[in-house]
Amino acid sequence: MNKTLLILRHEFRHMIRRRGFIIMTIVVPLIVLLLIGVSQLISGIARPTVEAMTIGYVDELGGFQQYTSQGNTTLVRFDTPDDATEALVNGDINEYFVIPSDYISTGVINRYTLEKQLAASPAVTSAINNFLLSNLLAGKVPEATIARIEAPLNLVSTRLTETGAVAPEQGGYGNLIIPFVFGILLALSIIFSSTYLLQGLGEEKENRLIEILLSSVSARQLLTGKVLGIGVAGLVQVAVWAISAPLLLNLASSSIGGFTSAIQLPPNFIVLAVVYFILGYLLFSVISASIGAVSSNSREGQQLIGIFTIPALIPLWFMSLIMFFPDNPIWVVLTIFPLSAPVEVITRLGVSVIPAWQLVASIAVLVLTIIGVLLLTIRIFRTYLLMYGKRPGIGEVLRSLRSG
Amino acid sequence: MRSRAEVANMLTVEVNHVVKSFADKVVVNDLSFSVAQGEIFGLIGPNGAGKTTTIRMMMDIIKPDSGDVAILGEKLREATKNKLGYLPEERGLYKKLGVLDSIVYLASLKGVDRHSAEEKADELLKQTGMLPHKGKKIEELSRGIGQIIQFIVSIIHDPKLVVLDEPFAGLDPVNTELLKGMLLDLRNQGKSLILSTHQMNEIEELCDRILMINHGRSVLYGNLDEIKSRYRSNSVLLEFEGELGEVPGLTEKRTHKGYVELALDGNTTPQQVLERLVSRGIVINRFEVATPPLNEIFLRVVGKNHE
Predict the structure, then answer these.
(1) 3.90.1150.10, 3.40.50.300, 3.40.190.10, 2.30.130.40: CATH of A53-150
(2) Of A127, A129, A64, whose CA–CA distance to A93 is shortest?
C-alpha cells in the first residue's frame, strides 16, 4: 500500500479511538440540542404552559361581570379585598387583583400574589388585559371588533424574488437554527482536529519518533497522510452530526414545541457547508503543521495556535449582531478574511443571501492562503522539525525561507 | 576478519566532504568516510562531536550544506529507505499503541505487509525474550524494554544497512549482551551496521572499522586493529608467580594491582621478553601486548589540539 495511505489510515484509526473524539462526536449534538431547547423554553417561543389558573378580582368600580373565562384562566369575583385575600391564602385562587373606583382615570390595577416574581407572566397579563378590554367595550362595539382590538396584528410575511414570484426560501428564525448550530460545530471540529494534529506532531517530535518516520517516508508523505487522516476523521464526525441532527430535532420537537417544522435550509447550504468544512479544515491543519514544526513542544504549539483559532470564533461571538444587522460591511470583511471565512459564511447563510462575488472571493482567498501556507510549511518543516528545545525567532524563519 | 569487507567489496555508505552548520556554527566539517557491506562500523567521538548530525544527513532527515551522501550506491530515494534501519538516539514510540501494533505499523512504512510483519515480530520478540510484552501498550514498558522493542523495529524489515545511535545507553548488562550477540549475527548475515556512541570502550569488541570525530572533523579513521597497533605503547602486561628479577631490554617496570606493566626499549620485542621469562622458569598466568583502549587513543589524538 502507498505509504501516504498507510499514514492516513494509521492517523484516522488513532483519531477515532481517542476518548476525546468519541465524546465530542456523541455529546456535542446532545449539548447543542439541550441549549436550543432551554433557550426556546426561556424565550417563550415554546408553547406556553397549559396549566389552568383561577384569578380573583374585586370590582370597586363596577361593571366587570362578563367574559370571566379567558382561555385557560377563569376569573372569579369577590366582594371585598379581605374575602379575596382569604381565598388566596387558602389556595382557592392563584392571585387576585383590585379594580379601583378611579380606574378609568388612572388605569391602575392592584395585583396581589404569593409568588416572588419580577413581573406578571405574559399569560396572566394577557388574560387580565383581555378581560378588562372586553368588559370596557361590551355593548359599545360589535363582538367581532372586540376580538380584533385584542389582537389587531397577525403578520404573515412572504418573500418574493426579483421576478415577483414567491421565493422558495422564506427566511425566519427556523432558517437560522441549522446554520448557527452548524457554525458552532464547524468551529469546534476544525479547532479540535487541528489541535490534535498539532499534539500528534508535538508528541512525535518530543519522543523522536519523527526521525524514524522520516527515515521511512518523506516529509511530504508524512504531512499529507497526517492532514488527510485527521481530516477524514473530522468529516466522519461532521457526518455523524449531520445525520443525527434531524433525528434529534424530530425527537425533541414533541417536547420542545413544533418549531422544527419551520426549519428550512438555504438551498446551497449543504454544498457550501461541505466546501467550507474542507477548506477550513485544510487551512487550519496546514497552519497547525507549520506551528508544530517551529514550536519546541506541544504545549507551546497550542498557545501559538490560539492566535489563529480566535478569528475563527469571532463570527460566533457576533451572532446576534449578524442577525440584526445583516448588511454591515464588517461581515463582508469577515467573509473574505480566510481565518474567519468558514464559520462566518455558514452563519451568514442563515440570515441573509451572500452575494456570489463574496463567496467567490472568499473561496479564492481561502484556497490561495492554503496553498501559500502549505508551501511555507513544507519549506520550514524539515529545517525546524529537528531543532529540539529551541524555537526559531521570526527573523530566523524569514531568513531560512529566503535561503531555503 | 578484515577480509569479510574486502570479499564483499561493496560500499553501503559513501559520505563525501559533507559540511553542515546550524546558525553559523559548523557542526560537521568536511567529513568523508565509507562503510562496506558486512562490517560493523563505529562512529565514535565525545558528546557534541557531530555524530547524530552526520547520521541524520545519512538518513536524509536533514540536508547537508555541501558534499554528498550515497546509500547503497545511490542518492537516498524513497525506495532505498525501505532498506535502511534506524534507531535514533533518544527514543519513544506511540505511548497509547500496543507493542505489536507499533512494530507492524512502523514495519508497514518500510514496505513490509501485515502478515509477514506479524510473523517476523513474533520471531524477534521470542528471540529477545520480549514475547510476554507483546500485548502491552508502549507506555507500560520500562525504558530498557522499550529500547529493545525499538531495536526490533529497526531490523524487522531485513534492512541492508542498520544505523544505531547510542544503542547500549540505558540497557542492563543482560540486554547489552543480548544486543551485542544480535548485532554480530546481523553482521554475519552480511548486513552493514553503524554504531554511534560516545562510550568508546563499549563497542571496541564489536567494531571492524571506526571513524573517530571531534568538533565535526575526522580525527581517526580506519581498521580498528591497525589503529590500535599504531597507537600501541611498546609495553607488555604480565601476571606471574615467583620472583621476576632483572629482565634485560626493559626501560621501566610499573607495578599495578595483580599485574606488572613492562615498558620495552626500542630494540626489544615482546616475543624476546616472553622467551627470556620462560627460560627462567617463571610461571606466567597472563602475557599481553598492551594496546591502549580507544578512550586513551582518543585523548592522545585530540590532546594535541585540545584546550
Answers:
(1) 3.40.190.10
(2) A127
